[in-house]
Specification:
Blueprint: E1 7-14, H1 19-29, E2 36-38, E3 41-43, E4 50-52, E5 58-65, H2 70-85, E6 94-98, H3 100-106, E7 114-116, E8 120-124, E9 136-140, H4 152-164, E10 170-174, H5 180-187, E11 191-196, H6 199-211, E12 218-225, E13 244-246, E14 254-258, H7 261-274, E15 283-290, H8 294-303, E16 306-314, E17 317-324
Helix pairs in contact: 1-2, 7-8
Length: 327
Amino acid sequence: MMNPTGWLELSVDVDREAVESVGALLAEIGYNSGVVVEEPIIHGPDGPDYQVDQSRPVTMRTYLPNDERASELIGQVERGLWALGMLRTVGELRVRELAEDDWANNWKAYYRPHRIGNHILVVPSWEEIEPQPGDIVLRLDPGMAFGTGLHPTTQLCLELIERYTRPGITALDLGSGSGILTIALAKLGARVVALDNDPIAVAATRENVARNQVHESVVVAEGSLGAGFDAGHWMGWNSGVVGQRTEAAGQFDMIVANILARVHVALAQDYRKALRSGAEGELLITSGIIAERELEVAAALAEAGFVVVERRQEGDWVAFVHRLSRH
């Protein structure tokens, strides 16, 4: 596990057409791929109501451990922003040091209730809101593990989970982060195993699972699936994985993995082994795939015996639903 001396907040103001590109750049280096998008808002007369001010730039933030890699990663972001600034309006990168407690709570100022799909309502744990009939409410405090539902990859996953989850199935949430996908699966009637190789994410998942009162149908553990155990953290950090290496042969009806393209490629055969072959409706949902790596992921999954059920894209991000081939 990392032992940073503190944390760095990286922030930049961009025009709306640059949000997806800058988000992808920040996600490449941010802790757990986390990116905060701060919309400029105009408060309504009733307090909680607000409207987005379309005339002002969007502020984007991510967070880094203040360790020996920080200077290199900041330089990488600066070069990327310079290149993007040739095409769109992109401001200068701001870097601010944060203490650990400040880092863990700083993003709360920018996190508001929001709807995803037809019925999913993601609500910060400290907010009070009146849900509509039929709403599936996910109360979330990501803490130090990103996963607020604001990133396109998470939104794509939630939309697909809402569409394809059947009550009574057994599901794996691989790379659980804050636990947002685990909670959605459980509230839709699945029995869920949530795995992450970051102990911070494991703790956040456990807390949010308890907060949403779905703990009776969820198992949370530190570790990864098959070859993923040897890969360390998705972003290449040494996470100090000491949990379980899950082979899970034929254990799951559904796997949901919102991780990086290269990890999907590495785990393609493990996904196949872990799915309950022959089960009606066994599905693999993969997200976190930057569009330029889409063909690489698609080829690896096809070679492992998967066929595409659905493809969705939001901005530069792609998500797939696959099923095991019957042949």
